Automatic annotation (TrEMBL):
Pfam families attached to this UniProt entry: RmlD_sub_bind
Keyword Chaperone belongs to the record: no
Protein name: dTDP-4-dehydrorhamnose reductase
EC identifiers of the protein: 1.1.1.133
Pathway participation: Carbohydrate biosynthesis; dTDP-L-rhamnose biosynthesis
UniProt GO MF annotations: dTDP-4-dehydrorhamnose reductase activity
Enzyme class: oxidoreductase
């Protein structure tokens, strides 16, 4: 079985490789931005011709949340048009598409765990273009799984955990937002879930939510990162208004994961347990 992984050297792509290798799952082909540019339709066609993949996993995305506010067209090109390009080639080759989306499709004004039926109303450009990508895919093919996830981190690429550890080395005190609440997700756990979907051979296509279990704020997340890494950094709680950013972020973006849990019969790890594993993997 061949599985094409777009964005194969980004954070999630590297986690997929780690988990697939550890489980002895082969057939995954990890494509970087040049080998698998999702904006190059001709290239996509020839890759699908060559590999005749059963699955395509789209980990490629424009993920710079603040920069997206100024680069609307580029963000839309990658997150919407790029996703649609893959979906169209998937239809031609009867390939199942596994696509990744985000909690940032939600406005985040209600303190309620959001399920797949809840209305998505993005409040920033990144979230909007990711929602457009989801919608584009669902109009092109019915043979897709879109997994919305949140606050991804791992030992690979750039993420909040690595930023905190870098800043924690440089500074004695850090200010971190306490009134934005969500669920951190170890990208290795998400990679495991994606591979479960493939090995289960499920055809229950559609939209699913996946994050680690539990709820926290960025402030509490930072505190846990320093606790597990034994850094003695003072973390100061900030309100969103005290940490201005170009993009507005949802205040509450906790997702209900009942649908994916009942599809796969899985137990999802608690965020602190997974964070402890990641910090160990980082060498602490
Ligand atoms: N990171 C997070 O906190 C969250 C991420 N997500 C979603 O999860 C998915 C994976 O994210 P993550 O791995 O963290 O993101 P990364 O930014 O680490 O990886 C994205 C990859 O896509 C590549 N890419 C960009 N443009 C193209 C293109 N035109 N063709 C092919 N590849 C391209 C990037 O390459 P390069 O770096 O060279 O530009 C990068 O390697 C994304 O869909 C993201 O929206 C959802 C929730 C949270
Ligand atoms: C670095 C830093 C960030 N923050 C805040 C800003 C922001 O509200 C929050 C997280 O900041 P970051 O910029 O690291 O993360 P951000 O890019 O907002 O993370 C998002 O990325 C996209 C791709 C997603 O899909 C989302 O699920 C989410 O993970 O922490 C602080 O309060 N203090 C700090 O020192």
């Amino acid at each position: 079985m061949n599985i094409l992984v777009f964005g194969g050297v980004g954070q999630l792509g590297q986690c997929l490789k780690k988990v697939a290798d550890s489980k002895g799952i082969d057939g995954l082909i990890y494509l970087d931005e040049i080998q698998g540019n999702i904006l190059d339709v001709q290239l996509l066609n020839s890759l699908f011709e060559q590999y005749q993949p059963q699955y395509a996993i789209n980990c490629a995305a424009y993920t710079a949340v603040d920069k997206a506010e100024d680069e609307v067209d580029l963000s839309r090109l990658i997150n919407k048009t790029g996703a649609e390009n893959i979906a169209k080639v998937c239809v031609k080759h009867n390939t199942t598409l596994i696509h990744i989306s985000t909690d940032f499709v939600f406005e985040g004004k209600l303190a309620k765990a959001l399920n797949e039926e809840d209305i998505a109303e993005p409040i920033n450009v990144y979230g909007l273009t990711k929602l457009e990508g989801e919608q584009g895919i669902s109009q092109i093919t019915s043979q897709y799984f879109t997994l919305r996830t949140s606050w991804l981190y791992s030992e690979f690429a750039n993420n909040f955990v690595k930023t905190m550890l870098r800043l924690g080395k440089e500074r004695e005190e850090l200010g971190v937002i306490i009134d934005q609440v969500g669920s951190p997700t170890y990208a290795v756990d998400l990679a495991g879930c994606i591979l479960e979907i493939i090995t289960s051979k499920s055809d229950a296509y559609g939209l699913y939510h996946y994050s680690n279990e539990g709820v926290t704020s960025w402030y509490d997340f930072a505190k846990a990162i320093f606790e597990f890494s034994n850094y003695s950094v003072k973390v100061k709680p900030l309100k969103t208004s005290e940490y201005p950013t170009k993009a507005t972020r949802p205040l509450y973006s906790v997702m209900d994961k009942s649908k994916i849990k009942s599809l796969l019969g899985i137990q999802i790890p608690y965020w602190r347990d997974s964070l402890a594993i990641c910090i160990k993997e980082l060498g602490f």
